[in-house]
Amino acid sequence: MRTDGPVVIATDFSEHSAQTVRWGAQTAEQRGAPVLLVHSYRDPSEAAVWGWYPMVPDTHEFEQEILAQLRDLRDTVVTEHPTLSVDVRLMRGPVVAALRELSEDAQLLVLGAHGYGRRPAIGSVSGQLVTYATCPVALVRSPDGDEHGEQAPEAPVVVGVDGSRSSIVAARLAAQEAARRRRPLHVLHARPAPPDPHGYGEVPPFDVRHTPDDPTHAAALAVADELRSAHPSVTVTLDLRDDDPVHALVDASARAALLVVGSRGLGAFRGLLLGAVSREVVRAAHGVVLVVRDLD
Predict the structure, then answer these.
(1) Distances, alpha carbon 240 to alpha carbons 14, 189, 192, 226, 254, in Å
(2) Using an 8 Å Cβ cutoff, are 281 and 289 in contact?
(3) Is 219:163 a contact under the CB 8 Å cutoff?
(4) Tell me, what's the pLDDT at 251?
(5) Exposed, middle or buried: residue 273 (CB in 10 Å: 0-12, 13-18, 19+)?
(6) In this structure, are residues 112 and 14 in contact, taking their beta carbons and an 8 Å threshold?
(7) How many Cα atoms sit within 13 Å of 171 on the Cβ side?
(8) What's the pLDDT at 165?
(9) Architecture of the CATH domain 1-141
(10) What is the b/e burial string over 143-172, where b = at least 16 CB atoms within 10 angstroms of the residue's CB?
(11) N or C: less crowded end of the chain, CB within 10 Å?
(12) Shortest CA distance to 96 belongs to which of 64, 66, 122, 119?
């Protein structure tokens, strides 16, 4: 995982995209990283071939208009964050392929979580990049009822852990984010209740919080202790639940400044790029989600 590359922020100049740029710029400033503002577009001549009105604009003029928008956006970011180094790039071609290429040299890719409805799903571009980007991906959406993305000062960074290598990498990155943001860190492990072998439903929940000899409890405590040792200034709390992991993480995201998850858990088969829990959490979370992939 690179730590010396830029924070790449994708923009489509929409209203939601402005929030994505604000979040990405603040995060880059906290990391002391440069920003690369990117817009990727499909060549108008390609789209016109399949349209009813094949009117192809002058490509050079079209690109200059978009570059002007990118530069105006850069000027806005620099005005709000004078210490940031901000560059712009216009890329022609499929959006997913262009941004995936940039992710290879980036320390973070920041995208808007586009969708529709009261609990919007993520857009197709964001969904594909969460799966295929080679760096951590932040999907930005406003918390429920807050169009500006503001969070209470006490809102924690929440990370889901299940003992997988991906979740341990995610926990370490979450601790770094909590330290940068001066927020507490909430380490959450949830395991679903096992089915009743007699076919009557589920076995009653087994409260691991009061069973220190339980392997799950011991492993989660070890993770929390490692994070406290590495980041003494961060208040680390541990939450062990008998609950569906997706439900527990989505519920926690409603009160989180940032939710961090690994790309794959223990249940994901080898070669799977995005696990089922991560996919559902990304789709249903209430705020910003950071998806971390272990590429070692």
Answers:
(1) 40, 5, 11, 17, 18
(2) yes
(3) yes
(4) 95
(5) middle
(6) yes
(7) 28
(8) 86
(9) 3-Layer(aba) Sandwich (3.40)
(10) beeeeebebeeebbbbbbbbbbebbbbbbb
(11) C
(12) 122
Angle at 130 between CA 128 and CA 133, to 5 degrees: 90
Residue 37's Cβ-count burial label (10 Å; 0-12, 13-18, 19+) is: buried
In this chain, the answer to whether the domains covering 1-141 and 144-296 adopt an identical fold is yes
pLDDT at residue 119 in the model: 45
Exposure b/e, 218-253, CB count within 10 A at least 16 = b: eebeebbeebbeebeebebebbbbbbbbbebbbbbb
The CATH architecture annotation of domain 144-296 reads: 3-Layer(aba) Sandwich (3.40)
Q: Reduced to 3 states, what is the DSSP secondary structure of residue 164?
A: coil
The confidence score (pLDDT) of residue 150 equals 61
Model pLDDT, residue 125: 87
Q: How far apart are CA 141 and CA 114, in angstroms?
A: 8
- What is the mean pLDDT for each group of 10 consecutive residues in the chain (296 residues)? 89 89 97 96 59 60 90 97 96 90 96 61 81 94 58 88 88 97 95 62 53 71 94 95 91 95 63 72 93 76
Angle at 199 (CA atoms; ends 195, 202), nearest 5 degrees: 30
Please, what is the angle between helix 15-31 and helix 165-181, to 10°? Answer: 90
